[in-house]
Amino acid sequence: MQYPAPIEKLIASYMKLPGIGSKTATRLAFYTIDMNKDDVDAFATSLTEAKSKLHYCSICGNITDDDPCEICQDQGRDQTTILVVEQPKDVMSIDRTNEYHGLYHVLHGVLSPIEGRGPEDLNIESLITRLQKHPEVKEVIVATNATPEGEATAQYLARLIKPAQIKVTRLAHGLAVGSDIEYADEMTLLKAVEGRTEI
Ligand SMILES: [Zn+2]
C-alpha cells in the first residue's frame, strides 16, 4: 500500500534533507498538504529563489546574491586581515559579535582523511591566490572549529601561508574542544577573537 504519488514524491523530497528519516518526512508531507495554499506557494518560491539567486562569492566563498559579496565590496572593512571559517554560517556568527571588522574566507569544510577530503576539495587555492594578489593582508586568522580536523586544517594552512611572511593566528580556546563556532555564544566568540594566538 502506497500513498498517492504526489505524497510519495513529497516524502521523498523531504527525505533528501539531512537528519530527516521516512517517519519525519511523512509527517512533514502531511503537514504541508494541510497548509493553506498561499503558504505552500511562498514556501515553494523561497526554495527555488534561494537556489537560483544565491551562489558563492568568487572572492571569499561566502554565500551571496551579489558577486563579490557585500563584505568583499565593503572598503570600510579592515583589508589587512582575513578570517578563515569552515562554513558560510560561521561568517554570520563571527560578524554578529561586532568585534571583528576584517575580511573572510570560507573553506567549505575541513581536511578529513577519513572522509577522503583533501586540500583540493576545499576553497584553499583561492585563498592563496587572494593572498598573492593582496600583499596588504598581514594576518590570517584561522577560525576552524576546535575538532581534530579543524586543528589539522589550521596547521596545514599555517604551513602554507607563513612562508609568505603573513602572520597566521588561531582563535583562543575559550571555545571548548570539539565545539562548533556555530553554537558558541557571542561573548565566547568575542573573547576567542580577542585572545587569538600565533601558530
Ligand atoms: Zn566575498
From TrEMBL:
Residues 80-176 form the Toprim domain. SMART domains: TOPRIM. Keywords: DNA damage, DNA recombination, DNA repair, Metal-binding, Zinc, Zinc-finger. It comes from the Bacteria. The keyword DNA repair applies. A zinc finger (C4-type) spans 57-72. SUPFAM superfamilies: Recombination protein RecR (SSF111304). It holds the Pfam family RecR_HhH. InterPro entries: DNA_Rcmb_RecR (IPR000093), Rcmb_RecR (IPR023627), Rcmb_RecR_Znf (IPR015967), TOPRIM_dom (IPR006171), TOPRIM_RecR (IPR034137). NCBIfam families: recR. HAMAP family: RecR (MF_00017). May play a role in DNA repair. It seems to be involved in an RecBC-independent recombinational process of DNA repair. It may act with RecF and RecO. Belongs to the RecR family. This is Recombination protein RecR.
